[in-house]
Amino acid sequence: MSSDTLPPDEDNWLLDDSESDNEASARPSEQRKPWKVLIVDDEKDVHTATRIALRGISYKERPLELISAYSGGEAFQQLQLHPDIALIMLDVVMESEDAGLRLVHRIRQELSNGVVRIVLRTGQPGQAPEQEVILNYDINDYKTKTELTTQKLFTTTIASLRAYENMVSLEKNRQGLAKILESASDLYQLHSLREFASGVLRQISALLDIGTDGILCVRNENHSGRPELEILAVSGSYEYLAEAGDLSSEPKLAEIIQRVFSEKRSIFQHPYDVLYIASRNRREFAVHFMPQWPLESVECDLLDVFCQRISAAYDNLYLYNQLRSAQEATVVALADLAEFRDTDTGDHVLRVQKLTDAIAQEMRDSNHYPELMTREFMDMVGMASILHDIGKVAIPDSILLKPGKLDPEERTVMEQHAPIGAQILDKSARMVEGTSYLSLGSEIAGGHHEHFDGKGYPRQLAGQDIPLSARIVAVVDVFDALLNKRPYKEPWSMEETMKYIGSRAGSQFDPHVVEALTRLVNEKRLPVPQQE
Hints:
Layout: H1 21-24, E1 35-40, H2 44-53, E2 58-59, E3 62-69, H3 72-81, E4 85-90, H4 99-109, E5 117-122, H5 130-136, E6 141-144, H6 150-188, H7 193-208, E7 214-219, E8 229-235, H8 241-244, H9 251-263, E9 267-269, E10 272-278, E11 284-289, H10 297-341, H11 348-365, H12 375-385, H13 397-400, H14 408-414, H15 417-429, H16 437-447, H17 468-483, H18 494-503, H19 511-522
Parallel strand pairs: 1-3, 1-4, 4-5, 5-6
Antiparallel strand pairs: 2-3, 7-8, 7-11, 9-10, 10-11
Helix pairs in contact: 3-4, 6-7, 6-10, 7-10, 11-12, 11-17, 11-19, 12-16, 15-16, 16-17, 17-18
GO molecular function, one term: phosphoric diester hydrolase activity
Region (Disordered): 1-32
Organism: Chromobacterium sphagni
């Protein structure tokens, strides 16, 4: 509202309340988030006049939403309900002579709200001298009620909203950049594409402090039987699309996303806000989310930065998966090399892999050794287990392929396969930083013949000095060997096998591993058939 709405010589902003509050109050726009202004005064006429004076005002196409409170206590409650209040027009003398000043202290200290603009206005300046108040209280302006004409009220309001907007932008930038750094770190920990996609939706929701409704899809250039726009993750109200896998039921959204891919840029066309993300390996992604209001420029800028971090995180995921695939191929090749000379074991290593994974998961579910059951361990221990007998490549055929029982000298030679396997894999594992299939494989190769009571070989380790991976494979290896035919024995029954293993819990085997295997057998949850 401009100043010519009222007579130019009007000095008193307290106007006649001939118009009702409902008529005078501007309704918040359904398309633009309103600026919230809190009027705090114990005189109803002040509220009415303020509403009339500010009627129809908007700033940057956003209207005002006026909220009333008639005491300091009521105002504090409103601030708790509406943490996004931009401006407070605050009386000093209400339920007490310094109620307004006390509220200022509570806003800044208890609520830690440093961005809301506070304009102190008083009809009794003697009660709160301007110089003293400005120095001692964190307020942004001081006005006497007699000097606040309609024009000055308009000017004060717009100036305060502009200052609030700048403060919020700075704070959003600070918090947003912190969230981006934090979320990017989280995304780097995700290992699968769909898990990564779900993580992106969660982080955008946290970054903008909006609801969880969202879609992330990928563009498949060479379809290969897959939809051109393939949905990787959904959340909130879009979860019904998870089974469909495409956007055929959302033609308008599909049209906007096609534009995003065609123009290779983000489009903010509320309510169809869609981010464009490109990676170095030429994969393209689109992320749709649903903020309640059109995004502000600072939010769009933060999303641009976030998209760059998402792209870098995806490239990291891609390289991680490529490296992991290369490692898995190496492990399989090494296992094939060992089996090439020991063909009688059949699919032994594959069964060992699946059962090792199953026992590890069972132990984790039972909260055994939680500090050792890391994400890396759970992901790698099964694949690493297929290397447990890699050292047999160094054993002469006359011993390795002997159909009968080994004599003591032959047994001594055969036992060398454990330290040899550990040494071979350890040398390679040192070339890869951190936990890898090779480092776990080295632990397993060297330790799966150790006994829990310290009477095994090659190093006579005992208890938890034996790596957990080796303690698991020790049980799995014997379990599978007993159940299946070998050159030196016929297969045992499941009952005989479990009786034998159970009798050695605490001596040869870790009791927790035996317990996990027993549950899998009793509940018929073994991952593969165990007899050839």
